[in-house]
Amino acid sequence: MTLINVISVAIPIVVAILLGIRQKIDLGDWTKVLPHLIGVINTITSILLLYGLYLIKQKQVERHKKVMSLAFLMGGLFLICYVMYHLTNPSTTYGGEGVIKYIYYFVLISHILLSLVVLPLVLRAYYFALIKEFDLHRKLTKYAFPIWLYVSVTGVIAYLMIKPYY
Predict the structure, then answer these.
(1) Environment class of 90 (CB within 10 Å of its CB; exposed 0-12, middle 13-18, buried 19+)
(2) Each residue of 17-60: pLDDT tens digit?
(3) What is the mean pLDDT of the chain?
(4) pTM of the model
(5) Considering its fold, how many domains does the chain have in total?
(6) Do residues 31 and 88 make contact, with C-beta atoms less than 8 angstroms apart?
(7) Does 80 have pLDDT greater than 90?
(8) For position 77, what pLDDT does the model report?
(9) Is residue 47 in a domain?
(10) Cα separation of 4 and 126, whole Å?
């Protein structure tokens, strides 16, 4: 649990620092495709989460474990790509006007805030499943799952809304 707590605090701090760094590292133009890859990763994660829910409702526990582990790995891949992008590129400004701009910022801000909440929940839920504390796993996933799904889906929505401005 100590490691989970440290990771849950360290990752948001590192991301905040990265977003504040003005001098970016030049690793080449290939890093410009990372937002699109991140959009794909969030889409795949959303599908995996829904499929994982379906599998556990069907009592297909072993397949559920594999699918949720893959979703967990996609979260790690997302984080790597996100950090790499913001280490190498300035943040993109949303260019929409009117009501759509407020919708975008609502989606983005709720996505960011809930991503901070969901990180320790997902780490704990995954840990409880690994150590076979399934009662604790089930109790926690009642909260972690819908928040994770929301964060994943709003990541896709935010990406689609800002995509024309990359």
Answers:
(1) exposed
(2) 887 888 889 999 999 999 999 999 999 999 999 999 999 999 99
(3) 94
(4) 0.90
(5) 1
(6) yes
(7) yes
(8) 97
(9) yes
(10) 11
User: Residue holding tokens 């969901």?
Assistant: 118
Q: Is residue 24 part of a domain?
A: no
> What are the two backbone dihedrals, phi and then psi, of residue 23, each rounded to the nearest 5 degrees?
-85, 115
Residue 6 domain-assigned? no
CA distances for 47 relative to 1, 24, 51, 108, 127, angstroms: 28, 33, 6, 20, 22
Its domain, for residue 95, covers 29-165
Q: Helix 61-88 to helix 2-20 angle, to the nearest 10 degrees?
A: 30
Beta-carbon count within 10 A of 155 CB: 24
- For residue 42, the model assigns a pLDDT of 97
d(CA 18, CA 10): 12
pLDDT in tens, 48-58: 999 999 999 99
Provide the 3-class DSSP secondary structure of residue 67.
Answer: helix
Classify residue 15: in a domain, yes or no. Answer: no
Q: Which residue has the tokens 């790509």?
A: 81
Contact criterion met (CB below 8 Å) for 151 and 71: no
